[in-house]
Structure to design on (259 residues):
């Protein structure tokens, strides 16, 4: 992910109550609320790291598959998935916000759906903590650093891509999948759509050539294990009930592709 995953979460907090770095056309909204604590903020960091297996060993069949898929992804440079990945480099981008809204079938922001945003941001804070610790522990290089290959994120060409940080696990894949699981709780009748959105978030990181396939798998594994802990908390259950109620009244987003 980009330099600090928690910064991305704050930037996306209102999805987006304030303009993200990319050009956006969204209605002005209230000031962004103060950062919210995670649902399992009291859990020891080591216990969160244990939710994730290590990345593949060099020379293993999984590592070989990673390299094969990375080489094969050259064929997609400049193609539809590449361009889509460029539009979703940050979870605060207009394109990403639209993907979330279209998946859940409701406009989501702090003004219209504060309880839903509370779910996403609090869970995201838990994930940020876990992903950051794992990246710092494993220090896995990004794929494009191994061959100076092209990647869709312009940061990959700056200072060897150091601003993007380490690769394992993928924070984008993790947050997409975690939010997909949560939104499937909130709006069960849209579970297929939101889980498809959640998976696509990680897939686009492979198309972008900034993550190995196993980074994406690792992000989803961490998100799934973390979700199981989060969903068992009393705070999550209370926030979930509020989110379910408010989404029944949330406006339907416009311009979504037919499903």
């Amino acid at each position: 992910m980009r330099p600090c995953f928690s910064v991305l979460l704050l930037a996306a907090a209102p999805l987006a109550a304030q303009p993200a770095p990319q050009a956006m056309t969204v209605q002005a909204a209230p000031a962004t609320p103060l950062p919210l604590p995670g649902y399992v903020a009291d859990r020891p960091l080591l216990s969160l790291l244990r939710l994730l297996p290590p990345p593949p060993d060099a020379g293993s069949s999984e590592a070989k598959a990673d390299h094969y898929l990375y080489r094969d992804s050259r064929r997609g440079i400049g193609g539809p998935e590449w361009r889509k990945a460029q539009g979703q480099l940050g979870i605060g981008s207009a394109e990403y916000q639209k993907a979330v809204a279209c998946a859940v079938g409701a406009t989501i922001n702090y003004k219209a759906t504060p309880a839903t945003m509370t779910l996403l941001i609090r869970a995201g804070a838990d994930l940020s903590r876990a992903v950051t610790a794992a990246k710092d522990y494993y220090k896995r290089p990004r794929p494009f650093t191994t061959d100076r290959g092209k990647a869709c994120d312009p940061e990959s060409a700056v200072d060897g891509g150091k601003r993007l940080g380490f690769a394992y696990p993928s924070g984008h894949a993790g947050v997409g999948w975690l939010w997909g699981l949560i939104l499937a709780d909130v709006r069960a009748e849209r579970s297929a759509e939101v889980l498809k959105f959640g998976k696509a978030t990680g897939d686009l990181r492979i198309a972008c050539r900034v993550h190995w396939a196993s980074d994406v798998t690792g992000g989803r594994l961490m998100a799934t294990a973390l979700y199981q802990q989060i969903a068992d908390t009393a705070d999550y259950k209370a926030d979930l009930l509020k989110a379910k109620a408010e989404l029944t009244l949330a406006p339907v987003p416009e311009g979504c592709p037919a499903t």
Notes: The CA atoms of residues 13 and 33 lie 8 Å apart. DSSP finds eleven helices and no strands in the chain.
